[in-house]
């Protein structure tokens, strides 16, 4: 259970969820309500065949995203250039907001892991910061 976010440009997003046992659990997210931005893109990641896979390894200049683990589990590492935090993602109704200038990496995927990401804008390669040293130049200023 995630209680607190220590890094900047992040936050916890709790979605409504209804246990309708034995008929499943319904989880609801709404643009500009539980999701604090208009959703322009969604994507998901599945079929982690390699337990040492590493995803992410980048930050964004403007894009905001919320990452959910809708099945299984993984470790989310966040880094704002000063503060770092590791979060075990295993609750499908709780997402982590990935704001701009927040380096993020995902590891330790369970074999059944399914990750869902909602994003505030369409894909743009120019928004990515893929080099960690370049990222630090953006966030640490003397």
What would your notes on this structure say?
The structure is a single chain. This protein has 1 helix and 12 strands; from the N terminus they run ββββββββββββα. With 142 residues, the chain is mainly β. The strands form 3 sheets. Strands 1-9-6-11-4 form a 5-stranded antiparallel beta sheet, with no helix packed on it. A 5-stranded antiparallel beta sheet has the order 8-7-10-5-12. The protein has a two-stranded antiparallel sheet with strand order 2-3. The protein is globular. The N and C termini lie far apart (36 Å). The model has no long low-confidence stretch (mean pLDDT 93).
How are the elements arranged and paired?
Elements: E1 10-14, E2 16-19, E3 25-28, E4 41-45, E5 55-60, E6 65-71, E7 74-79, E8 84-89, E9 94-98, E10 103-107, E11 114-119, E12 128-129, H1 132-139
Antiparallel strand pairs: 1-9, 2-3, 4-11, 5-10, 5-12, 6-9, 6-11, 7-8, 7-10
Would you count the extended β strands for me?
12
Helix and strand content put the structural class at mainly beta
Residue fraction in strands = 35-45%
Shape: globular
CATH superfamily: Jelly Rolls
In whole angstroms, how far apart are the ends?
Answer: 36 Å
Rounded to an integer in angstroms, the radius of gyration calculated over CA atoms is: 15 Å
Tally of helical runs: 1
Low-confidence stretches: none
Can you write the helix and strand succession as a string? EEEEEEEEEEEEH
CATH architectural type: Sandwich
Mean residue pLDDT: 93
- Say what the CATH topology is: Jelly Rolls
Count of all domains: 1
**CATH first level:** Mainly Beta
Strand order in the largest sheet:
1-9-6-11-4
Query: How much helix, percentage-wise, in residues?
Result: under 10%
């Amino acid at each position: 259970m995630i209680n607190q976010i220590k890094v900047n440009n992040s936050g916890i997003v709790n979605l409504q969820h209804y246990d309708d046992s034995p008929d499943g659990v319904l989880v609801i997210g709404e643009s500009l309500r539980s999701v604090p931005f208009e959703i322009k893109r969604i994507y998901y990641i599945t079929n982690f065949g390699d337990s040492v896979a590493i995803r992410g390894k980048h930050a964004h200049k403007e894009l905001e995203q919320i990452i959910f683990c809708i099945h299984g589990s993984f470790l989310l590492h966040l880094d704002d250039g000063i503060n770092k935090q590791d979060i075990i993602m295993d609750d499908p109704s709780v997402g982590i907001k990935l704001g701009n200038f927040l380096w993020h990496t995902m590891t330790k995927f369970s074999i059944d892991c399914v990750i869902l990401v909602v994003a505030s804008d369409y894909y743009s390669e120019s928004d990515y910061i893929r080099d960690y040293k370049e990222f630090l130049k953006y966030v640490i200023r003397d």
